[in-house]
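PT: before anyone asks, these are the final sequences, not the draft ones from last week. 898 residues across everything. Please model them as a single complex and drop the result in this thread when it's through.
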Amino acid sequence: MDPIVIVGGDAAGMSAASKFKREHPERDVIVFEKGEYVSYAACGMPYYIKGAVEEFDDLLQVSPEAFIEDRDIDLRLHHEVVGIDTGAHEVAVDGPGGSFTQSYDQLLIATGARAIEPPFDGMELDGVHTLHSLDSAKAVHDVMENQSPSAVAIVGGGYVGIEMAEAFDAHGVDVHLFEMLPHVLAPFGEMVAEHVEDHLRDEGIELHLETAVDGFAGDDGTLERVLVGDGAFDVDLALVGVGVAPNAELASDAGIELGETGAIAIDEFGRTSADDVFAAGDCAESRHVVTGAPDYVPLALTANRAGRAIGQTMAGDETPVGDIAGTAAVKAFDLEAARTGIIDESKAREAGFDPVSVTIEASSRAHYYPGAKPIHITMVGDRDSKRVLGAAMVGREGVAKRIDTVAAALHTDTTVGELEYFDLSYAPPFSPTWDPVLTTAKVLNGKLD
Amino acid sequence: MDPIVIVGGDAAGMSAASKFKREHPERDVIVFEKGEYVSYAACGMPYYIKGAVEEFDDLLQVSPEAFIEDRDIDLRLHHEVVGIDTGAHEVAVDGPGGSFTQSYDQLLIATGARAIEPPFDGMELDGVHTLHSLDSAKAVHDVMENQSPSAVAIVGGGYVGIEMAEAFDAHGVDVHLFEMLPHVLAPFGEMVAEHVEDHLRDEGIELHLETAVDGFAGDDGTLERVLVGDGAFDVDLALVGVGVAPNAELASDAGIELGETGAIAIDEFGRTSADDVFAAGDCAESRHVVTGAPDYVPLALTANRAGRAIGQTMAGDETPVGDIAGTAAVKAFDLEAARTGIIDESKAREAGFDPVSVTIEASSRAHYYPGAKPIHITMVGDRDSKRVLGAAMVGREGVAKRIDTVAAALHTDTTVGELEYFDLSYAPPFSPTWDPVLTTAKVLNGKLD
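LR: through. Structure below.
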């Protein structure tokens, strides 16, 4: 029988390969990875640059040797799949030894995403970086360690921008953060964004909101200035983090359907429009648990679990890849921010809901317990169905994992009134008697009537 | 119309009074409280004794004056209800001005619970305390502050015992903790208990497990020794915390039905067997969300939300008091322990389930992120229905609120396989990619097949 073939050796690909091999050790699994790293911790890159993660190797979760020797996976580094013939069930591969074709029984496309490179002038200058790979993280890290820059520019106030602000600041450099929109962290909503922005400013970050970067300039091919409208700021390094785009070209060139988001369309088992071809991870869409519609939210857990589920399905045990709720958390210096579901009211209306939202301030601990900190929560419910649609929160402690209770409510079609009566844990060092989530649900429920 | 009458001015009673008054400001609400404190933070007492909560008044959440003046509640301190005539719809009251009867339109019994006083010799000695009221907390606090005891005994390894071990230890005294059973914290299961026990020993607590205390001895009416089997330990103070019993006598004397647990039986709206008589809080049973059967788990949130729901029901808007999951958290020095649902396999079998459980070790943060700590989780599922039945966990961070995700799963009849695919938050400082709860569900699901 032809082997299982997997394109891309990161989270989704290696999870699928590992799971399939556990189920069918006698079958061959080939993974083609065009780079030299597999299964690496992309989310750890800002912390490596910060210096909090000391060793580069700590970002490598499982070594290529372990996959090859311990898990008996035929992993081929520096092999790029350049074409898929879905009819013939084979892929065209460029490798160090030349080009060849490989036939497959079942194929998984796990090509990931890439950092979007905006059409700025000067993107090619030395000193302008994106954070799209371990090599780019290493490059930025080495500049910070060895070249003592005095000022850096971050373009984009998403996760990467926020985490990198903290990372650069730890090196004692001036940090300029440019965001085109009125607020950073768009998916978290305005309330969270404003708290994060205040905190970034308190930490000394120079925030430039509603500020479109025009490009970069410098002599001798080296970055010296970031150009903004009429002005310019002197910087030694720029990091462009304006989002990612799915690596969907291999699939679309093969005639495989993409979704409206531009990522590869899949069914609930991760199947693409081509027979025996699956897609997972940052190159693929997911189904949103609140709307039931396809969405593109490329995050690590989604890739891991979809890969694992597809490994299981390819092994004969049909397993859905799971819906997403868009749950996410981010650390911004001493703040934690988290979100899940649909927070944006216009997005909720587009999905057919009649959104009602409340924002409250609660406490992370019993009011009398030392160290209690405010937690600010926005929760959105649907007036018709009374369902919880989403929530966002921000505070100095007890935020990142508190959002999971709301995520659980989304996965179970829980109404706001039902959430209000969940029996959540209480002890003075960890929560008020009514957990902030319960209090928010209580207030929102009063407004839904 | 006769007033709403409430017996007991703590969490359940004052929540009901406040909620009813908000709905019907024109109606009279009388609260009879036999003591002088209302709506106080009983759970904060150990932290007051520890010295972490500096002011006694911080434990008083809302003052009597605020209830009377701001909320227009007819609160009568030092008034004890000594009888209920459910037929005549009136209560007999002993107050500072004498005895009288008060008729009611609807009645809420919120008499709370009391510390169990075991039939030990020497319970009456000076220096032997229970922690049943703010006054008792004040007495223990004052001894610790003013009399510099050198050794104390705690009898009972439940929440109170564990929290008080930390509180006493903060004063630099020798702490002996006696537990009759093989392990402390019985509701949390053996795995959690063993971690807590190791940690208590590391912190210098002298743990005496499987050790029944026979009594106390001392000359001149003052405690000097705790007696255990053939031996004795010299102590200056003893705190007996072997559990609480519902104050259900007032109800049972009035012919109101008690449940098998000994607490007042109620329906889903908090109604007792007598017309127009409700019960809530530590004197009443609750329905367990996993078994659907009555249970007695006297905790603060249950009292608060049942009181509020009953206030709403009495006001004409029928509102269920909510099921409990037995969710609880406790801090033991640097450890957090938490539990929800059914953990004990024999209890699960009694309830008709076929329990399967797993215990795993996971990490509180990404493995490479500084400060990551182990989290140990036990999760129990039902082989037939595949439902999650309960979980317990312990670790140095990220435990107390992580249990809430499992509690949410219990409230929504979620299967282990469904829980495995919840989209929970991930960022390296707060969680591994697969949250420990997801990993545990994944492993348990594999065992359920």
